Amino acid sequence: MPRGLSQPVRENLTKARDAALAAVEIYNKPAIDFRAGNYIVLMVIAWTALFHAIFYRRGIKPWYTLPLTGKRRRYKRIDGDVAHWELAECIRQYFTSNNPPERKNLEFILGLRNKIEHRNMPQLDPTLFGECQAMLMNFEDLLVKEFGAKFGMADKLALAIQFSRTSPKAQQETQKKLANSTSTKVLDYISQFRMGLPTEILNSQHFRFSVYLVPKIANHEKSADVAMEFIPYDATKPEEMEKLSKIVGMIREKQVPVANVDMIKAGDVVKEVSRHLPFKFNLHHHTKAWQHYGVRPACKSSSPEKTKADFCVFDKAHGDYVYTKAWVRFLVQKLSDAAEFQNVTGQSPSPTGKAAVVASTVASAPAIVDSTVNTAA
Fold it and tell me: What are phi and psi of 61, to 5 degrees?
């Protein structure tokens, strides 16, 4: 560790880098089932230590204070040691009122950590890859920004070798496992967090990293160039980006989500929601709901497949839309509130005469979560 940094800064930088490297090592081990869970726990430690290093370097003590007694500042202690800020507080202190995609990525991961820390859900690993990868890249970016390129770790990391060229079949298996999962609270958390994000953040590579893997043809038989090359989007090169867009269009799967795994039609959504709402709920209300929450495009859209796949999928074979059980749970949770019901539907709720049922009692069938992983044919 170079000189010029105080001991607390050096110790936290070492801890941050070691935890991040350990997280990547565990995630890339094929024999481990609890990969995303282990990765997230270690990356939370890495990010917390990195923030502490940044605060110490800025002359800020990342410690919890107690109410003032006189003029002397006192700090909270646990077993005799000063209580440091945990990651949630570090996020608030570092970003203050700013809400960039990097912050939303950390908030998403932190909330997820609290839900899966004591669960073994290996079927979620492919679903969370994008957010996990973005978390690592954001960590590297902030590390280099605050302490210089000499602290970067890119040279220590390599692309994990995969067994298959394409993954549609693997995606289908993952979807089936998710459909049979009982951890609906975790799935609902993922769906609703993504649902609540602005489009520009949801599509940001700093919130969720996603790429197409396109086979690369060598320029020469004995060429020594790298086998895998990442080409970032560059708005200053519109012609090159347009060419890449055309290539992606050629390899893009026409139907991104898996077809009709545990999906229901609009009429069935109305029946399910009506069973649990204290208000009358019909197809007109359902139409107003998907329009209000932007779950799917309007009828006769030129791009009917552009749905929020956590809640809705376009069924190309039948030319209509089908919905997930997560959408049912979402509607029950939201529309049980009379003010929200009126805001969404434009009509005052009409009581059915039955007691309201809390959203947690909705049928426990899980959602299809993040089936929009992009793959090359």
Answer: -85, 115
